[in-house]
Amino acid sequence: MSMAIYPYRDRLVVAQKPGTSPERVVTIDLETLDATPLSRRIRSAYLTGCTRIVVTTAGTLSPAAGRTIRETVTQLLGIEINRETDDTVVVETILDPGEGSIPQAVDQLHRQAVRMHETAIEAATTGSSSLARHVRSQKTEVDRLFAFVSHTVHCGITDVTEITTFDIDRAAAFRQYRIACQLDSLAAYATRIATVGGNRDSAPDPGPDPKSAFFDRLEALGADIQSTLEVALEGESDTSISRCFQDIERLESDLTDGTDNYLSGVILENLRGTVRCGIRIEETARQEPI
Q1: Which CATH superfamily does the domain covering 99-286 fall into?
Q2: pLDDT-derived band of residue 123, with 50, 70 and 90 as boundaries?
Q3: How many CA atoms lie within 13 A of 117 on its CB side?
Q4: The overall pTM is greater than 0.85
Q5: Are 245 and 224 in contact (CB under 8 A)?
């Protein structure tokens, strides 16, 4: 194994020389594929930093498998089908550092997730199924951006020089990755709030009337949370995001007189998750490089 020493801040890092790292390849054999969907296997390989994904079978790839591969590839950034035969499809990464960066992707993730939260609150307070569908459609772009960050950072785990091609050091990249994980969770909470709030008629126990005080207070609470999320990436100490927990508790306690129900409980629980994400983002953004 050929090793090299690289300067990094005030220390030296020992790593394999460029071009000597083992190729990050995964082979998916459709003959032995378990119950895990093919699309999920491809996505998982990409998320964990694989640069080549080979899908193969003993016979001929079915049209359905081919469609799944193509659809999955189009949902991910920086990969393409490099070679395709009757029994094999080879997918490879083509990431160009000049076309994007980890900080840019995280910034886009942040703006997208905050917009999803805002729209989700509106969907819940108005009971709009169209707004709920809009929020769900936005989750696809969040998934693409998060997958790009995860793939790039995991590539840097096995090759110390690769992450630097994106003009970011490893410590900063891992910090951005932790923030991206929380933003992905934030978008998931927004999706659940929009789904249950925008489809009240299908809830096991329909919530309070849209004109009730609950939804008025929910709208104000959602706006307060949004304000804290908008500045969370700056990492400035701000106790207002923690106070949102208290506002959620007060709103929930006021529902114990008979208005507490499935809809309200799901919305408030997901708002708690949203606030937790905001706190973790703020804490991570404040951390000094190691």
Answers
A1: Phosphate transport system protein phou homolog 2; domain 2 (1.20.58.220)
A2: very high
A3: 33
A4: no
A5: no
Q: Sorting pLDDT into bands at 50, 70 and 90, what band is 49?
A: confident
Same CATH topology for 3-93 and 99-286: the answer is no
User: Which is it for the CA torsion 253, 254, 260, 263, positive or negative?
Assistant: negative
Q: What tens digit of pLDDT does each residue of 205-262 get?
A: 555 554 477 888 899 999 999 988 988 887 665 567 778 888 999 888 877 555 547 7
Domain range annotation of the chain: 3-93, 99-286
Alpha carbon distance 59, 149 (integer Å): 35
Q: What is the CATH number of domain 3-93?
A: 3.30.110
Amino acid occupying residue 133: R
> Encoding tokens for residue 265?
């409980």
3-8 vs 25-29, strand pairing mode:
unpaired
How many Cβ atoms are within 10 Å of 21's Cβ, its own excluded?
17
CB atoms within 10 A of CB 194: 30
DSSP-derived letter for residue 167 is T
Phi and psi of 55, rounded to 5°? -105, 125
Q: Give the tens place of pLDDT for each residue, 165-215.
A: 666 777 888 899 999 999 999 999 999 999 998 876 555 555 555 447 788
Report the Cα 125 to chain-centroid distance in Å.
Answer: 25
